[in-house]
Design brief:
Elements: H1 3-58, H2 69-81, E1 89-93, E2 99-102, E3 122-128, E4 131-142, E5 145-154, H3 156-191, H4 193-206, H5 221-277, H6 282-314, E6 320-323, H7 324-334, E7 341-347, E8 351-354, H8 356-374, E9 389-398, E10 401-408, H9 430-435, H10 442-451, E11 458-462, E12 466-473
Parallel strand pairs: 7-9
Antiparallel strand pairs: 1-2, 1-5, 3-4, 4-5, 6-8, 9-10, 10-12, 11-12
Helix pairs in contact: 1-2, 1-3, 5-6, 6-10, 8-10
């Protein structure tokens, strides 16, 4: 059963119970008030009749010391005919509660007489021949006699009104329930619309459409639930996209790795087979051995780089406070005799939290790449050039920490390639990279090392103008002077 139907049915049940109990209470309360009013009037009328009987008895001639039964009947007959309707229902009994006079139509039994004495009034509501009456009984004192006067007042109209009230209320309740059901169907449909939208969204996403979102149509709890669901869907879509990207990157990595292995292995196998199956002169033998050695060193370098990347991804850096000057001193010493390049170092003193050996690896790779990108291609044209390529390595304190940058003025990197060069085995110019014994793993290693330092590699480059690779490390102190 749908939730909206359950909501309508439960509301109708509560409404029916509420209307039923309230209707019964209302109609019954009106009936009891009307009946009490009629009982009061009946008792008052009984007292008035008793007073009238006593007054009439006083007008009896003095020859009677005790009111005779015949006079009692005569007075009762006159009282019966003296009403507005011309016919009261009354009955009179003597001291022994024997009946002396009974009006025509007085059908009540004598059950009320034993309950009445000289000092009490009694009444009851009785039913006789499909009619309802208030039966009263009072005592009267007439000429030294104690008599009992009983009356019957017709209150059938009160009971008829109660029956009509219940009948009318049942009809009104039925109409209200039907009207309320129609209204509640619309209300339930409106209230459950966010649930239907959420259900549709879950079905669409289960079918593979992760971009589908539920429309938020309210600001209540269901609207908040829709918003939370959409945020969850966004997070899920991002996670799935990341997984797809990782799978795609893994496939690309495996393809590139297989391709990079194939080229040196083909050369090694070919030249080894040549040495094994042919007698070669000394020059060709040396050349073949040199190719085998060169390609083997390339495989060795590739394996070491891959191992470094795997370790960098799995390991956590143990950051220590280090003077930046020590790092730059190491770089100046290492690249002091680099031919064909003018490497210029400048830095501000600061204490930086880092894993020294890993950051050295990053900077050595960046400077080495800058040197390769800055080599003068004019030599290939036979022109030759003595102008050294300029490479700038700088360290500056910035608001976010300490920024280290390596800038060259070489060939530059196309903008479309800049987001891809940190991927393993990716090379902008594959023929140029392989000619310099590269495999496209250096920047991938740098990116992984910077990740565990809570930093990232920033790239600024224009084709023909050069490139700038930089990263920011957390600085413990501002620069100081000795």
């Amino acid at each position: 059963m749908k939730f909206s139907i359950k909501l309508v049915l439960s509301t109708m049940i509560v409404l029916a119970l509420a209307l039923g109990f309230s209707g019964f209470y209302f109609v019954n309360n009106v009936f009891e008030n009307s009946l009490d009013r009629e009982v009061g009037q009946a008792l008052d009328e009984s007292s008035i009749l008793g007073f009238a009987f006593e007054t009439a008895a006083l007008n009896v001639p003095l020859k009677y010391s005790v009111l005779p039964d015949s006079v009692v009947e005569e007075i009762a007959s006159k009282l019966e005919m003296g009403g507005q309707s011309g016919g009261r229902l009354l009955r009179i009994a003597d001291e022994e509660k024997n009946i002396l006079y009974t009006s025509s139509g007085f059908t009540a039994d004598e059950g009320l007489l034993p309950q009445t004495d000289q000092h009490t009034k009694s009444y009851r509501v009785i039913r006789a021949q499909d009619c309802f009456y208030v039966h009263t009984c009072v005592s009267i004192n007439a000429l030294n006699r104690i008599l009992y006067l009983e009356t019957m007042k017709d209150v059938t109209d009160v009971f008829t009104e109660r029956a009509l009230g219940f009948s009318l209320y049942r009809k009104v309740t039925l109409v209200m329930l039907l009207t309320g059901m129609v209204i509640m169907l619309f209300i339930a449909s409106f209230l459950t619309k966010p649930i239907r939208l959420l259900t549709r969204a879950t079905r669409e996403m289960a079918a593979g459409d992760y971009k589908y979102r539920a429309r938020q149509i309210s600001r209540d709890e269901l609207g908040q639930l829709t918003g939370d669901f959409n945020r969850m869907a966004n997070a899920l879509e991002e996670t799935i996209c990341k997984l797809e990207e990782e799978i795609e990157a893994r496939e690309e990595f495996m393809g590139a790795f297989a391709h990079e292995l194939k080229t040196p292995l083909t050369a090694i196998i070919g030249y080894a087979d040549m040495l094994r199956s042919h007698k070669l002169d000394e020059e060709k033998s040396i050349m073949s051995a040199n190719y085998i050695y060169t390609e083997g060193k390339r495989l060795e370098a590739m394996s070491f780089r891959l191992l470094d990347i795997i370790v960098a991804k799995q390991d956590e850096a143990h950051l220590q406070e280090t003077q930046v000057g020590e790092l730059f001193a190491y770089l100046q010493e290492m690249f002091a005799e680099k031919e064909g390049t003018d490497i210029r170092f400048s830095h501000e003193e600061a204490v930086v939290r880092m894993e020294v050996n890993l950051i050295k690896t990053v900077l050595v790779n960046l400077i080495d790449n800058a040197c390769k990108a800055s080599e003068n291609d004019a030599v290939a044209d036979g022109a030759g050039s003595d102008t050294a390529a300029v490479i700038e390595v700088t360290g500056r304190t910035v608001r976010e920490g300490y920024r280290i940058a390596v800038r060259d003025y070489g060939i530059g990197i196309p903008e479309a390639e800049q987001s891809k060069i940190v991927k393993a085995f990716y090379m902008v110019d594959k023929s140029r990279a392989r000619s310099k014994n590269g495999a496209g793993l250096g920047l991938a290693l740098c990116a992984e090392i910077l990740k565990i330092h809570h930093s990232e590699l920033q790239i600024e480059s224009k084709v023909g103008e050069g490139s700038c690779f930089s990263f920011i490390l957390p600085a413990e102190k501002r620069a100081y002077e000795e």
